């Protein structure tokens, strides 16, 4: 996919955001308005294991992905927030080819209700996964509170994310399959999209993520930064902010030179409570649950269907 320029993203310091450091808050607002993406250094003296839990959870998920497909399919569910998703269920990054990733999804509501939903090979580590999810929830809701301080929305953004209300917030662990030599019909990557929810807290030790720069109409690669999460704004937060914040278009491609290895990543998707409402890029008033379901219908539709409107890319056009 050619040599691309790197995206120039800010690195924010979580400790300074917690302290409401004015300079850091200004950087946060600019990053969310202009790029919709930033790195976050999670150093937090109160939760020293937070980021380490993410690394460990990825390595447990990594081993689980090595299990046979038939075993993983036992926890395949007709759900986009819960259970196993095999590779190739949606259009991928290459026209007329499917996606190239499998994933295991763990919804926040299931941890809260105490449901025993994790399969063999993962269930022994349920407390690790719970900590990873709750730390990610804490980080994303703290960022949300900073954004409310900055933009003074009524009600505050957090008020659409009441912890006890049902939501589609979920943690997802991904494996992008290596590209078999000379085999061109396997799925590839993760198609262009904007995230549908509020904030995404992503981590991957490997490259492949690209963000679309609207000013230059070019894809830019997002370099990995050791010890840092990548945070991005989703559609729901853009809509709740009256389009002041940007949900940036991104995708995942096989990183040049690394096509022959699997890529692992994980993301916590903070989403508003199901019954929150907002006006979308299509000028419709919908609930957060409706937008979630609409967006997933489009994620799964054919490339031709996807091109009929701009729902996939949050109301924005992509020149390719
Ligand atoms: O795997 C990644 O790096 C990104 C995944 C992603 O963009 C998504 O699932 O929304
Ligand atoms: Fe995404």
TrEMBL record:
GO-annotated molecular function: metal ion binding; oxidoreductase activity
InterPro entries found in the cross-reference section: DIOX_N, IPNS-like_FE2OG_OXY, IPNS-like_sf, Iron_ascorbate_oxido_reductase, Oxoglu/Fe-dep_dioxygenase_dom
The organism's place on the tree of life at top rank: Eukaryota
Gene Ontology biological process terms from the UniProt entry: small molecule biosynthetic process
Every Fe2OG dioxygenase domain range: 165-272
Keywords: Iron, Metal-binding, Oxidoreductase
SUPFAM superfamilies according to UniProt: Clavaminate synthase-like (SSF51197)
PANTHER family per the UniProt record, alphabetical: 2-OXOGLUTARATE (2OG) AND FE(II)-DEPENDENT OXYGENASE SUPERFAMILY PROTEIN-RELATED
Family statement drawn from the similarity comment of this UniProt entry: Belongs to the iron/ascorbate-dependent oxidoreductase family.
Protein name, as recorded: Oxidoreductase
